[in-house]
Design brief:
Blueprint (H helix, E strand, L loop, with lengths): L1 H14 L1 H4 L3 H16 L2 H16 L8 H4 L2 H4 L4 E2 L1 E6 L3 E7 L3 E6 L2 E4 L9 H9 L4 E2 L2 E2 L9 E2 L21 E6 L4 E7 L1 H4 L4 H13 L1 H5 L6 H11 L13
Antiparallel strand pairs: 1-8, 2-3, 3-9, 4-5, 4-10, 6-7
Length: 248
């Protein structure tokens, strides 16, 4: 599902009438919801099935049960992913988020959350879930999903009486906007695995420290991806028995 979103979301944003009208907030909202609409089409279902088949043929861990492999219409209901997207213009940063990934802005070294982690136990999320005839158990939607918004996961979006943004699980994103200034440093976009181990400020401090290292300034071939590698090395669980949920 992540690969499907990676391929289709940028095109949906670019082709959106709102994007062409420079209404970037609405363009992001329309495009997130557009992923779910595309999944419901015959074309979308076949594309997801094709991606899944290629992954499985490559020796990777199957993403669905064997019983669903030959039934694209059924399989598409059981795949989903989070999406956290930053759209940057010359003057502003727009961040759209659906799920428990997070975008953090460093502004003069201070961490500013540009998204909210969509967890089922949040008051507004729980109200929507219950209104859609779902429930929250052990901080999971219907005792299963540990997030309250996602792209895909259509099995939780079956009510014909509700709008897309009112479904038990919704792809409707929060969109936050921040003006770019001389104090704007950088953005960090990461999944919940990182934020389970680091606070937003921890992450900003770590990246800033890495950027200021002499190796980065002197070595013109130094890649920013090295900072990501260093961050993951720092938070990786010391053994397979450890759960890694430790704050630094």
């Amino acid at each position: 599902m992540a690969l499907f979103t990676k391929k289709n979301l940028p095109a949906l944003i670019k082709d959106s009438p709102a994007f062409k009208a420079k209404n970037y907030r609405q363009a992001l909202i329309d495009s997130f919801l557009g992923i779910d609409k595309k999944l419901e089409t015959v074309e979308g279902k076949k594309e997801v099935a094709s991606i899944n088949a290629k992954m499985n043929s490559g020796g990777k861990t199957p993403t669905t049960s064997p019983a669903l492999e030959s039934d694209p219409e059924e399989m598409v209901n059981f795949v989903g992913c989070t999406a956290c997207v930053a759209l940057i213009t010359k003057t502003e940063i727009y961040v759209a988020n659906a799920g428990d990934s997070r975008c953090v802005l460093s502004k003069n070294g201070i961490a500013i959350n540009m998204s909210e982690d969509h967890k089922p136990d949040l008051e507004n999320e729980k109200k929507r879930i219950i209104k859609a005839e779902g429930y929250v158990e052990d901080n999971r939607v219907n005792g299963v999903l540990n997030l309250s918004r996602s792209l895909g996961d259509l099995e939780y979006k079956q009510s014909k009486k509700l709008k897309q943004e009112e479904q038990m699980i919704t792809a409707y994103p929060d969109v936050k906007v921040e003006k770019i200034s001389n104090e704007t440093d950088f953005l960090i976009v990461a999944c919940d695995g990182v934020w389970d181990c680091m606070t937003s400020q921890n992450a900003v401090d770590f990246v800033k420290e890495q950027i200021l290292k002499s190796s980065y300034k002197q070595d013109k071939s130094y890649k920013l991806s090295k900072i990501i590698e260093a961050m993951l090395d720092k938070i990786v669980a010391p053994s397979v028995e450890a759960n890694g949920n430790r704050l630094i």
